[in-house]
Design a protein that fits this description.
Elements lengths: L2 H4 L9 E2 L10 H14 L9 H17 L6 E4 L2 H11 L7 E5 L8 H10 L2 E5 L7 H6 L6 E7 L11 H10 L3 E5 L11 H4 L3 E5 L11 E5 L50 H15 L1 H22 L14 E4 L3 H13 L2 E2 L1 E3 L2 E4 L7 H14 L1
Parallel strand pairs: 1-10, 3-4, 3-5, 5-6, 6-7
Antiparallel strand pairs: 2-8, 7-8, 9-12, 11-12
Protein backbone atom coordinates (compact mmCIF):
# COMPACT_ATOMS: atom_id res chain seq x y z
CA UNK A 1 0.00 0.00 0.00
CA UNK A 2 1.32 3.50 -0.77
CA UNK A 3 2.56 5.01 2.49
CA UNK A 4 0.89 8.36 1.87
CA UNK A 5 -2.62 6.85 1.92
CA UNK A 6 -2.49 6.06 5.64
CA UNK A 7 -1.64 9.64 6.59
CA UNK A 8 -5.13 10.76 5.56
CA UNK A 9 -6.69 8.76 8.43
CA UNK A 10 -6.87 9.62 12.12
CA UNK A 11 -5.94 6.20 13.58
CA UNK A 12 -3.63 5.52 16.56
CA UNK A 13 -0.37 3.86 15.56
CA UNK A 14 -1.00 0.90 17.89
CA UNK A 15 -4.50 0.16 16.49
CA UNK A 16 -5.23 -1.99 13.43
CA UNK A 17 -8.74 -1.07 12.34
CA UNK A 18 -10.34 -3.69 10.08
CA UNK A 19 -13.96 -2.72 10.63
CA UNK A 20 -14.87 -0.26 7.86
CA UNK A 21 -18.05 -2.27 7.19
CA UNK A 22 -19.26 -1.14 10.63
CA UNK A 23 -18.06 2.46 10.44
CA UNK A 24 -15.33 4.04 8.34
CA UNK A 25 -12.23 5.42 10.04
CA UNK A 26 -12.22 9.19 10.28
CA UNK A 27 -10.27 11.17 7.73
CA UNK A 28 -8.31 14.14 9.04
CA UNK A 29 -10.01 16.28 6.38
CA UNK A 30 -13.44 15.27 7.67
CA UNK A 31 -12.53 16.15 11.25
CA UNK A 32 -11.18 19.53 10.16
CA UNK A 33 -14.31 20.22 8.14
CA UNK A 34 -16.46 19.35 11.14
CA UNK A 35 -14.56 21.67 13.49
CA UNK A 36 -14.70 24.51 10.98
CA UNK A 37 -18.42 23.92 10.42
CA UNK A 38 -19.20 24.02 14.15
CA UNK A 39 -17.27 27.27 14.48
CA UNK A 40 -19.10 28.76 11.51
CA UNK A 41 -22.48 27.66 12.85
CA UNK A 42 -21.65 29.44 16.11
CA UNK A 43 -22.08 32.69 14.17
CA UNK A 44 -25.48 32.25 12.48
CA UNK A 45 -25.45 35.86 11.31
CA UNK A 46 -22.63 34.92 8.95
CA UNK A 47 -24.70 32.23 7.18
CA UNK A 48 -26.08 33.58 3.92
CA UNK A 49 -29.29 32.50 2.21
CA UNK A 50 -27.36 30.76 -0.59
CA UNK A 51 -25.41 28.72 1.97
CA UNK A 52 -28.55 26.63 2.52
CA UNK A 53 -28.21 25.32 -1.03
CA UNK A 54 -24.69 25.84 -2.41
CA UNK A 55 -22.78 23.33 -0.30
CA UNK A 56 -25.48 20.63 -0.49
CA UNK A 57 -25.35 21.01 -4.28
CA UNK A 58 -21.57 20.52 -4.19
CA UNK A 59 -22.12 17.35 -2.17
CA UNK A 60 -24.85 16.15 -4.53
CA UNK A 61 -22.51 16.69 -7.47
CA UNK A 62 -19.62 14.90 -5.74
CA UNK A 63 -21.78 11.85 -4.96
CA UNK A 64 -23.05 11.79 -8.54
CA UNK A 65 -19.47 11.83 -9.82
CA UNK A 66 -18.51 8.97 -7.49
CA UNK A 67 -21.51 6.91 -8.62
CA UNK A 68 -21.09 7.77 -12.28
CA UNK A 69 -24.44 9.45 -12.69
CA UNK A 70 -25.96 12.92 -13.09
CA UNK A 71 -26.40 15.38 -10.24
CA UNK A 72 -30.17 15.56 -10.71
CA UNK A 73 -30.49 11.88 -9.79
CA UNK A 74 -29.23 12.27 -6.20
CA UNK A 75 -31.32 13.02 -3.09
CA UNK A 76 -29.77 13.77 0.31
CA UNK A 77 -31.38 11.67 3.04
CA UNK A 78 -30.59 10.63 6.64
CA UNK A 79 -30.64 6.83 6.43
CA UNK A 80 -31.11 3.75 4.30
CA UNK A 81 -34.50 3.11 5.88
CA UNK A 82 -35.60 6.56 4.71
CA UNK A 83 -34.54 5.80 1.14
CA UNK A 84 -36.17 2.38 1.12
CA UNK A 85 -39.37 3.96 2.45
CA UNK A 86 -39.28 6.38 -0.49
CA UNK A 87 -38.93 3.42 -2.86
CA UNK A 88 -41.74 1.47 -1.22
CA UNK A 89 -44.05 4.49 -1.37
CA UNK A 90 -43.45 4.98 -5.09
CA UNK A 91 -43.59 1.37 -6.30
CA UNK A 92 -47.18 0.17 -6.56
CA UNK A 93 -47.92 -3.36 -5.36
CA UNK A 94 -50.93 -5.65 -5.40
CA UNK A 95 -51.90 -8.97 -3.84
CA UNK A 96 -50.70 -10.85 -6.93
CA UNK A 97 -47.16 -9.43 -6.73
CA UNK A 98 -43.99 -10.85 -5.21
CA UNK A 99 -41.06 -9.03 -3.62
CA UNK A 100 -37.70 -10.80 -3.86
CA UNK A 101 -35.12 -10.24 -1.12
CA UNK A 102 -31.99 -11.96 0.21
CA UNK A 103 -31.77 -14.09 3.33
CA UNK A 104 -30.28 -12.21 6.30
CA UNK A 105 -30.44 -8.99 4.31
CA UNK A 106 -29.78 -5.90 6.41
CA UNK A 107 -33.05 -4.92 8.20
CA UNK A 108 -33.18 -1.40 6.74
CA UNK A 109 -33.95 -2.96 3.36
CA UNK A 110 -36.46 -5.45 4.79
CA UNK A 111 -38.94 -3.82 7.15
CA UNK A 112 -40.47 -1.46 4.58
CA UNK A 113 -41.16 -4.44 2.31
CA UNK A 114 -42.72 -6.35 5.21
CA UNK A 115 -45.03 -3.38 5.74
CA UNK A 116 -45.83 -3.19 2.01
CA UNK A 117 -46.62 -6.91 1.94
CA UNK A 118 -48.95 -6.60 4.92
CA UNK A 119 -50.76 -3.63 3.39
CA UNK A 120 -51.12 -5.03 -0.14
CA UNK A 121 -51.10 -8.79 0.27
CA UNK A 122 -47.93 -9.13 -1.82
CA UNK A 123 -45.71 -12.16 -1.14
CA UNK A 124 -42.07 -11.90 -0.04
CA UNK A 125 -39.69 -14.46 -1.52
CA UNK A 126 -36.34 -15.00 0.16
CA UNK A 127 -33.21 -16.08 -1.72
CA UNK A 128 -31.28 -18.40 0.61
CA UNK A 129 -27.58 -18.05 1.36
CA UNK A 130 -25.59 -21.18 0.59
CA UNK A 131 -22.00 -22.29 0.29
CA UNK A 132 -22.91 -24.26 -2.83
CA UNK A 133 -25.21 -21.87 -4.71
CA UNK A 134 -24.18 -18.25 -5.37
CA UNK A 135 -26.64 -15.66 -4.08
CA UNK A 136 -27.01 -14.30 -7.59
CA UNK A 137 -28.32 -17.64 -8.80
CA UNK A 138 -30.59 -17.99 -5.78
CA UNK A 139 -32.09 -14.58 -6.53
CA UNK A 140 -32.55 -15.31 -10.23
CA UNK A 141 -34.40 -18.54 -9.42
CA UNK A 142 -37.12 -16.54 -7.64
CA UNK A 143 -37.68 -13.83 -10.26
CA UNK A 144 -40.60 -14.33 -12.63
CA UNK A 145 -43.55 -12.46 -14.12
CA UNK A 146 -45.12 -12.08 -10.67
CA UNK A 147 -42.09 -10.17 -9.38
CA UNK A 148 -42.85 -6.49 -8.79
CA UNK A 149 -39.78 -5.55 -6.74
CA UNK A 150 -36.29 -6.97 -6.37
CA UNK A 151 -34.78 -5.46 -3.20
CA UNK A 152 -31.18 -6.54 -2.92
CA UNK A 153 -27.81 -5.49 -1.59
CA UNK A 154 -24.81 -5.12 -3.91
CA UNK A 155 -22.93 -7.47 -1.61
CA UNK A 156 -23.96 -9.23 1.57
CA UNK A 157 -23.14 -7.31 4.72
CA UNK A 158 -22.03 -10.35 6.74
CA UNK A 159 -19.35 -11.78 4.45
CA UNK A 160 -19.05 -9.62 1.32
CA UNK A 161 -20.67 -12.11 -1.06
CA UNK A 162 -21.06 -10.23 -4.33
CA UNK A 163 -24.35 -10.15 -6.20
CA UNK A 164 -24.04 -9.83 -9.97
CA UNK A 165 -26.23 -6.78 -10.43
CA UNK A 166 -25.91 -6.88 -14.22
CA UNK A 167 -27.68 -10.26 -14.29
CA UNK A 168 -30.24 -9.16 -11.71
CA UNK A 169 -30.96 -5.96 -13.64
CA UNK A 170 -31.42 -7.96 -16.85
CA UNK A 171 -33.90 -10.26 -15.07
CA UNK A 172 -35.72 -7.24 -13.65
CA UNK A 173 -36.12 -5.67 -17.09
CA UNK A 174 -37.23 -9.00 -18.58
CA UNK A 175 -39.99 -9.35 -16.00
CA UNK A 176 -41.04 -5.68 -15.69
CA UNK A 177 -39.85 -5.66 -12.08
CA UNK A 178 -38.45 -2.68 -10.18
CA UNK A 179 -34.88 -2.94 -8.91
CA UNK A 180 -33.99 -1.42 -5.52
CA UNK A 181 -30.35 -1.68 -4.41
CA UNK A 182 -28.84 -1.14 -0.97
CA UNK A 183 -25.21 -0.25 -1.73
CA UNK A 184 -24.25 0.64 1.84
CA UNK A 185 -21.56 -2.04 1.92
CA UNK A 186 -20.10 -1.27 -1.49
CA UNK A 187 -20.56 2.33 -2.68
CA UNK A 188 -17.18 4.00 -2.47
CA UNK A 189 -15.26 0.72 -2.47
CA UNK A 190 -16.66 -1.29 -5.40
CA UNK A 191 -17.18 0.16 -8.89
CA UNK A 192 -20.79 0.27 -10.05
CA UNK A 193 -22.23 1.13 -13.47
CA UNK A 194 -25.53 2.86 -12.76
CA UNK A 195 -26.12 3.73 -16.40
CA UNK A 196 -26.00 0.08 -17.38
CA UNK A 197 -27.92 -1.21 -14.35
CA UNK A 198 -30.64 1.46 -14.47
CA UNK A 199 -32.09 0.61 -11.03
CA UNK A 200 -35.25 2.33 -9.91
CA UNK A 201 -33.64 3.33 -6.61
CA UNK A 202 -30.23 2.88 -5.01
CA UNK A 203 -29.42 3.93 -1.47
CA UNK A 204 -26.30 4.05 0.66
CA UNK A 205 -25.28 5.26 4.09
CA UNK A 206 -22.44 7.76 4.17
CA UNK A 207 -20.53 6.64 7.26
CA UNK A 208 -19.11 3.29 6.13
CA UNK A 209 -17.17 3.06 2.86
CA UNK A 210 -18.01 6.69 2.07
CA UNK A 211 -16.03 7.69 5.19
CA UNK A 212 -18.40 10.48 6.23
CA UNK A 213 -20.48 11.35 9.32
CA UNK A 214 -23.41 9.43 10.73
CA UNK A 215 -26.95 10.46 9.64
CA UNK A 216 -25.82 11.33 6.11
CA UNK A 217 -27.07 9.00 3.37
CA UNK A 218 -27.78 9.23 -0.34
CA UNK A 219 -30.56 8.10 -2.65
CA UNK A 220 -30.26 7.59 -6.40
CA UNK A 221 -33.58 7.94 -8.20
CA UNK A 222 -34.09 6.85 -11.81
CA UNK A 223 -35.35 9.54 -14.16
CA UNK A 224 -38.71 7.76 -14.58
CA UNK A 225 -39.52 8.46 -10.91
CA UNK A 226 -38.30 12.05 -10.64
CA UNK A 227 -41.07 14.01 -12.34
CA UNK A 228 -44.06 12.42 -10.60
CA UNK A 229 -42.55 10.70 -7.54
CA UNK A 230 -44.12 11.33 -4.15
CA UNK A 231 -41.72 12.38 -1.35
CA UNK A 232 -42.05 11.15 2.22
CA UNK A 233 -42.39 14.70 3.53
CA UNK A 234 -43.43 18.06 2.16
CA UNK A 235 -40.49 20.27 3.09
CA UNK A 236 -40.37 23.90 2.05
CA UNK A 237 -36.78 23.29 0.96
CA UNK A 238 -37.91 20.83 -1.73
CA UNK A 239 -40.23 23.26 -3.50
CA UNK A 240 -39.37 25.26 -6.59
CA UNK A 241 -38.20 28.76 -5.75
CA UNK A 242 -37.33 27.95 -2.13
CA UNK A 243 -34.01 29.76 -2.60
CA UNK A 244 -35.98 33.03 -2.45
CA UNK A 245 -36.70 33.32 1.27
CA UNK A 246 -38.73 36.49 0.80
CA UNK A 247 -41.31 34.60 -1.29
CA UNK A 248 -41.79 31.47 0.83
CA UNK A 249 -45.35 32.45 1.68
CA UNK A 250 -46.17 32.37 -2.02
CA UNK A 251 -46.92 28.64 -1.91
CA UNK A 252 -46.22 26.54 -5.00
CA UNK A 253 -47.09 22.99 -6.01
CA UNK A 254 -43.95 22.37 -8.06
CA UNK A 255 -40.89 20.67 -6.62
CA UNK A 256 -37.24 21.46 -7.26
CA UNK A 257 -35.70 19.66 -10.21
CA UNK A 258 -34.77 15.99 -10.31
CA UNK A 259 -34.45 13.87 -7.19
CA UNK A 260 -34.37 16.96 -4.96
CA UNK A 261 -38.08 16.45 -4.25
CA UNK A 262 -37.00 13.43 -2.16
CA UNK A 263 -34.48 15.33 -0.01
CA UNK A 264 -35.05 15.04 3.72
CA UNK A 265 -36.28 18.15 5.50
CA UNK A 266 -33.42 20.25 6.89
CA UNK A 267 -31.00 18.60 4.46
CA UNK A 268 -28.67 21.66 4.48
CA UNK A 269 -27.09 20.47 7.75
CA UNK A 270 -24.39 23.05 8.31
CA UNK A 271 -22.15 20.61 10.22
CA UNK A 272 -22.54 17.22 8.53
CA UNK A 273 -22.71 18.45 4.92
CA UNK A 274 -19.14 19.89 4.97
CA UNK A 275 -17.87 16.71 6.65
CA UNK A 276 -19.55 14.48 4.07
CA UNK A 277 -18.26 16.64 1.23
CA UNK A 278 -14.66 16.39 2.50
CA UNK A 279 -14.97 12.60 2.57
CA UNK A 280 -16.49 12.23 -0.90
CA UNK A 281 -13.99 14.61 -2.47
CA UNK A 282 -11.11 12.54 -1.05
CA UNK A 283 -12.62 9.30 -2.37
CA UNK A 284 -13.02 10.92 -5.78
CA UNK A 285 -9.35 11.91 -5.71
CA UNK A 286 -8.39 8.32 -4.94
CA UNK A 287 -11.08 6.88 -7.29
CA UNK A 288 -13.25 3.90 -6.42
CA UNK A 289 -11.32 1.68 -8.84
CA UNK A 290 -8.06 2.40 -7.02
CA UNK A 291 -9.63 1.68 -3.62
CA UNK A 292 -11.18 -1.56 -4.83
CA UNK A 293 -7.95 -2.80 -6.39
CA UNK A 294 -5.96 -2.03 -3.22
CA UNK A 295 -8.44 -3.63 -0.81
CA UNK A 296 -8.92 -6.70 -3.00
CA UNK A 297 -5.20 -7.38 -2.75
CA UNK A 298 -5.41 -7.32 1.05
CA UNK A 299 -8.41 -9.66 1.28
CA UNK A 300 -6.84 -12.03 -1.24
CA UNK A 301 -3.91 -12.47 1.14
CA UNK A 302 -6.38 -13.38 3.89
CA UNK A 303 -8.20 -15.80 1.59
CA UNK A 304 -4.93 -17.54 0.71
CA UNK A 305 -4.15 -17.93 4.40
CA UNK A 306 -7.61 -19.35 5.08
CA UNK A 307 -7.18 -21.85 2.27
CA UNK A 308 -3.87 -22.99 3.76
CA UNK A 309 -5.54 -23.37 7.17
CA UNK A 310 -8.46 -25.32 5.73
CA UNK A 311 -11.00 -22.54 6.31
CA UNK A 312 -13.60 -22.47 3.53
CA UNK A 313 -14.14 -18.79 2.68
CA UNK A 314 -16.14 -17.75 -0.35
CA UNK A 315 -14.14 -18.19 -3.56
CA UNK A 316 -12.74 -15.01 -5.08
CA UNK A 317 -15.29 -14.88 -7.90
CA UNK A 318 -18.13 -14.76 -5.34
CA UNK A 319 -16.57 -12.11 -3.12
CA UNK A 320 -16.83 -8.34 -3.60
CA UNK A 321 -13.11 -7.95 -2.85
CA UNK A 322 -13.09 -5.11 -0.32
CA UNK A 323 -14.13 -7.23 2.68
CA UNK A 324 -14.16 -10.90 3.56
CA UNK A 325 -15.99 -13.22 5.96
CA UNK A 326 -14.01 -15.96 7.70
CA UNK A 327 -16.33 -18.76 8.89
CA UNK A 328 -15.54 -20.37 12.23
CA UNK A 329 -16.89 -23.74 13.41
CA UNK A 330 -19.50 -22.10 15.64
CA UNK A 331 -20.56 -18.83 17.28
CA UNK A 332 -18.41 -19.40 20.37
CA UNK A 333 -15.21 -20.03 18.43
CA UNK A 334 -15.83 -16.91 16.35
CA UNK A 335 -16.27 -14.87 19.53
CA UNK A 336 -13.02 -16.27 20.98
CA UNK A 337 -11.13 -15.41 17.79
CA UNK A 338 -12.50 -11.85 17.75
CA UNK A 339 -11.51 -11.39 21.39
CA UNK A 340 -8.01 -12.72 20.73
CA UNK A 341 -7.62 -10.29 17.87
CA UNK A 342 -8.95 -7.42 19.98
CA UNK A 343 -6.37 -8.14 22.69
CA UNK A 344 -3.71 -7.69 20.02
CA UNK A 345 -5.33 -4.37 18.98
CA UNK A 346 -6.92 -5.76 15.79
CA UNK A 347 -10.55 -4.61 15.51
CA UNK A 348 -12.90 -6.74 13.42
CA UNK A 349 -16.59 -7.68 13.68
CA UNK A 350 -18.31 -10.95 14.44
CA UNK A 351 -21.32 -11.66 12.27
CA UNK A 352 -22.97 -14.92 13.25
CA UNK A 353 -20.22 -17.55 13.29
CA UNK A 354 -18.00 -15.55 10.96
CA UNK A 355 -15.25 -13.00 11.44
CA UNK A 356 -15.82 -10.07 9.11
CA UNK A 357 -12.65 -8.28 8.01
CA UNK A 358 -13.09 -4.91 6.31
CA UNK A 359 -9.84 -2.95 5.70
CA UNK A 360 -9.34 0.39 3.99
CA UNK A 361 -6.44 2.39 2.57
CA UNK A 362 -5.05 2.90 6.08
CA UNK A 363 -4.38 -0.86 6.25
CA UNK A 364 -0.84 -1.99 5.39
CA UNK A 365 0.48 -5.26 4.00
CA UNK A 366 2.38 -5.75 7.25
CA UNK A 367 -0.80 -5.46 9.30
CA UNK A 368 -2.54 -8.04 7.15
CA UNK A 369 0.45 -10.37 7.49
CA UNK A 370 0.27 -10.01 11.28
CA UNK A 371 -3.49 -10.55 11.17
CA UNK A 372 -2.95 -13.82 9.31
CA UNK A 373 -0.45 -14.94 11.97
CA UNK A 374 -2.95 -14.22 14.73
CA UNK A 375 -5.71 -15.98 12.79
CA UNK A 376 -3.57 -19.10 12.55
CA UNK A 377 -3.05 -19.01 16.32
CA UNK A 378 -6.79 -18.64 16.88
CA UNK A 379 -8.00 -21.66 14.91
Amino acid sequence: MPADDRVHFDIPDDLIYLNTARMGARLHAVTRAGHEAVDRFAAPWAIRDQDWFDEPERLRSAIARLAGTETDSIAIIPSVSYGIAVAAKNLRLSGNDTIVVVEEQYPSNIYAWHRAAIETGAEIRVAKKSTEIPLTDALLALIDKSTAVIATPHCHWTDGELIDLERIAEAARGNDAALVIDASQSLGAVPIDLESLDPDFLVSVGYKWLLGPYSMSYLYVAERHRATGIPLEESWLNRRGSEDFASLVDYVDEYRDGARRFDVGQFPNFVTIPMALAAIEQINRWTVSYIHHALSGLTETIRDTCQRLGIATLPGDRNAGHMIGIPMPDHASAERAVNTLREAHFLVSQRGRSIRVAPHLHTTDEEIARFCELLEQSV
